Amino acid sequence: MVGNAKSTMLKASLSSKKLSLDDCRKPSMKMINAFSLDTSKLCAETSALAERELRETPEQVQKSLAELRELLKEKNTMSYKDTDEYLMIFLRPTHFYAQSAYDLMKRLATFKDKHEKIVANPLPREEKKLFTENNVVNVLIDRDQKNRRVLILNMGSAWDPKSLNSEQLFKVLYLIQIASLVEEETQVRGVVIIIDFHGLSTKQVMAMSPSFAMTLLLYIQEAMPLRMKEVHIVRQPFLFNMVWPMFKQFVGDKLKKRLFFHGNKMSSLHKHLDANMLPEDYGGKKPKLSYSSADWYPVMQDLESYIADWNTYGLKN
């Protein structure tokens, strides 16, 4: 990927030894605290999943990498990193169809160019307050039963739009998404989002403009190089009915099939996410959440050079 150290870690994941799913849940790096990105080798089950769902075989990988490089060279409209690790980020969510991967790269580059104010060059050290002084975005320590990353988005009373406006909120989500791309397991398995509207008031409703809804959903559905597997809406009050129409108009057919509304019925959520892997906050058997994005911030700091490099890729001037 980006930077020699990160590239070395990611290349290690391509070695011949495969891990079991249980082994894969164990961090590959010694952790100072409970938070770390997992740069371990792909699980045996994940490798099989990638072959089954994404057509990821050694032969197809090499063929698609060569085709994608040829397309990028021929078109010559984007700046990008010409490494296997970087190009795999775009080939995996597009099932190793080189043209589709190229189109995804182009959509991301176009999005970055259009929304330069928000995502042109965000760096963790410059956005520290967004992580450490707010409790809106969180990533569960535990993956779900399918070994997918689970992101919590608190859009209710936990969100103070005066402290974190909608553009800044998007920036935090964008940076966390870039960080997740370091994990090959996440590239293959994808992510799940729980959007918690507990305590939603008019203050938050007023901050969620149609422009914000369109930008967020456009990125998720068109430009994000990550597999979005499920989105779960929980603890939404009646006031949510004022917000949803703004978002609904931008939701495509594919996302609609992956969008679930649960209200306060955590048993409904547990049909999709195993209670054994969820915190007590969502009716799970894990301890109540005692951490926030502030605890994840050191991980973002460690990826400063990786993110800075990622920021350089896009449309050529």
What does it look like?
This protein has about 325 residues and is of the alpha/beta class. About 50% of the residues lie in helices and about 10% in strands. The strands form two sheets. The chain has a five-stranded mixed β-sheet. The protein has a two-stranded antiparallel ribbon with strand order 1-7. It is built from 17 helices and seven strands.
Keywords, separated by commas or semicolons:
317 residues, 7 strands, globular, two-stranded antiparallel ribbon, disordered N terminus, alpha/beta, five-stranded mixed beta sheet
Major sheet description: 5 strands, mixed
Low-confidence stretches: 1-20, 26-33
Query: Separation of termini?
Result: 23 Å
Structural class by secondary-structure content: alpha/beta
Order of helices and strands: HHHHEHHHHEEHHEHHEHHEHHHE
Gyration radius over CA: 19 Å
Query: What sort of overall outline do the alpha carbons produce when their principal axes are compared?
Result: globular
Give the helix proportion (percent range).
Answer: 40-55%
Beta content comes to 5-15%
Total count of helical runs of at least 4 residues: 17
Q: Could you tell me the number of beta strands?
A: 7
Mean pLDDT: 89
For the biggest β-sheet, the strand order reads: 2-3-4-5-6
Task: Itemize the secondary structure elements and their pairings.
Blueprint: H1 4-12, H2 21-24, H3 44-54, H4 58-75, E1 78-79, H5 84-91, H6 98-114, H7 116-119, H8 128-132, E2 137-139, E3 149-154, H9 166-180, H10 184-189, E4 191-196, H11 202-207, H12 210-223, E5 228-234, H13 240-248, H14 253-256, E6 259-263, H15 266-269, H16 293-302, H17 304-310, E7 314-315
Parallel strand pairs: 3-4, 4-5, 5-6
Antiparallel strand pairs: 1-7, 2-3
